[in-house]
Fold:
Amino acid sequence: MEAAANMDIFYPIQLLANIITSGWLNLAKDSYFGRVLNFFIYDTIKIGILLVLINYLMAITRYYFPTEKVRNLLTKRRWFGLDYLFAAFLGVITPFCSCSSIPLFIGFLSAGIPLGVTFAFLIASPLVNESSLIIFPALFGLKTTIIYNFLGIVVAVIGGVIIQKLHLEKYVNSALLKYKSRQDIEAENGGEEMKLLVLLKYWWADGMKITRNIFPYVILGVATGAAIHGFVPATLIENYLSIKSWWVVPVATLMGVPLYANSVSIIPVMEALIGKGIPLGTALAFMTATVTLSIPEALIIKKAMKWQLLAAFFGITTLGIMLIGYFFNWIT
Structure:
């Protein structure tokens, strides 16, 4: 376990959060306030760093490879769905929870990546993750693991395609889509090519413009997530989800949406529920909704889009999760 922790690129941030909460403030590790503050420090720093780095890289990308070229490349050629599939696979290999995926999602939007393709990534990133690839086989068998991950990628791809077909670009925050071209920047510099040091400062200012715009919502979302992180009313869930009826899968999904937990922390709860007789598909629907959709995610991502697009994202993803649950209940 210690070796696995040290392989986590964000482990130093976790160590810092532990030092602040347990070492400096003497808060008990297992106390409610200790857990809340530890999570808040860890996630705020992690998402903040991701925002700064990704927005900086995207500023460089926009300068050398303008958004119009990216957009034309992905929209005027026939990719036969491979662009959505690639975005979904990128989501699979990025070790992010639903909130941590947002900086890269925003970076994709600002780089001119089509809206549906970016949503394929946003859906897949928390839905198909290291837990579903590594922990699932030991707990639920190889067959369940393969089917779940396959269906997760399918849901991400189809969800992205639907959002693209609905032409919801008008509901994206326009500030994320308006940037000066390289020609505009050089024109402001008297038509001369800018020196590297000047460019580095420009890219930093360009990237920080988005970061400053989004970060207050990150703090709000993380604070909400910290308050409810890992809170799973197991007895209430067990009482409702043990009922054998068609409406239980939608209830399981809707019960999971307001909660906020990563897959590693929710899998033991899911395993316990299955051990008490709750159908596999119902338990999967609850787990998947918990790790893929959340109130903190909605609070952060709301700054990047209007409620119509946010509602479409949550609605399409929720429906996909329900279908996964029904499918597993049907085959088991």
Summary: Residues 2-331 form one domain. Residues 1-6 have pLDDT under 50 and may be disordered. Residues 59 and 203 are 5 Å apart (CA to CA).
